[in-house]
Amino acid sequence: MSKTKRKFYKNSDKSFQSESEKVHFYRGLSRAELSDHRGAIHNFNKALKINPNSAGAYYNRGMSRFNRSDYTGALQDYTKAIKLNPCDSSAYYNRGITKAVLNYYNSSIQDFNIVIKYNPSFPDAYHARGLCKVEIGNLIGALIDFEEAIQNNPDFIEAYINRSLVKVKLLDIEAAINDLNRAVEINSEYTEDYLNRTGFLEALESLLEPLLDPKETV
Question: Residues with Cβ < 8 Å from 22, sequence gap 6 or more?
Fold first, then answer.
């Protein structure tokens, strides 16, 4: 599952209770954007000590915790952010990604359902939900989600690749090859890197082996 993709949350100036909170909040943002997530968490902690009802500070601390592989902490922060701002689809999306990393696939799908309800043209949500459906064995549902992702972003390389793997599992080999060819057409270098990084080719080989080299029956 990919890392969280949404941008850091920037509060409006009116939402700060004090100038000190504002300083810590924006210092945390600056550190996070420089990938100093440990320092960012320190500043968001200080901002939350001043204002424990800051949805933005919880959200941003959740992103920094995620990037430090503290997935349980990130999950807690996104949940707090959602309680304080129930209409923030970005928090639902990032929480869904975090749940998927923790293998909470069904709960993750529920979060992506909410994201899609708020933003029905967001391709990443369909793709992420499709990946979760693959994990729970819902291949047809995953296929539909990958198709929705591609419809909303015709150059979505990861969606083509993952749809091709589902098609192989469904024994639609020709269509699977077409998807891989399309991914290569869009960006061959990125496609090769993604295939190698995700172990896709090994998974594909294991699926195709019984079809290409069937054992003789006695």
Answer: 11, 13, 16
The answer, yes or no, to whether residue 5 has pLDDT greater than 80, is no
Taking the C-alpha atoms of residue 43 and residue 91, their distance in angstroms, rounded to an integer, is 20
Show the tokens assigned to 183: 């991914």
Ranges of beta strands (E only) in the chain are: none
The identity of residue 18, as a single letter, is: S
CB atoms within 10 A of CB 168: 20
The tens digit of pLDDT for each residue in 158-200 reads 999 999 999 999 999 899 999 999 999 999 999 988 888 877 7
2, pLDDT greater than 60: no
Residues with Cβ < 8 Å from 118, sequence gap 6 or more? Answer: 87, 89, 92
CA 148 and chain centroid, separation: 16
Q: What angle do CA 117, 97, 47 make, to 5 degrees?
A: 95
Query: Average pLDDT, stretch 146-164?
Result: 97
Going from the C-alpha of 193 to that of each of 5, 168, 170, the distances in angstroms are 19, 20, 25
Confidence band for 201, pLDDT divided at 50, 70 and 90 = confident
Instruction: Please state, in angstroms and rounded to a whole number, the distance separating the CA atoms of residues 27 and 105.
Output: 34
> Can you state the angle between helices 139-152 and 123-135, rounded to 10 degrees?
160
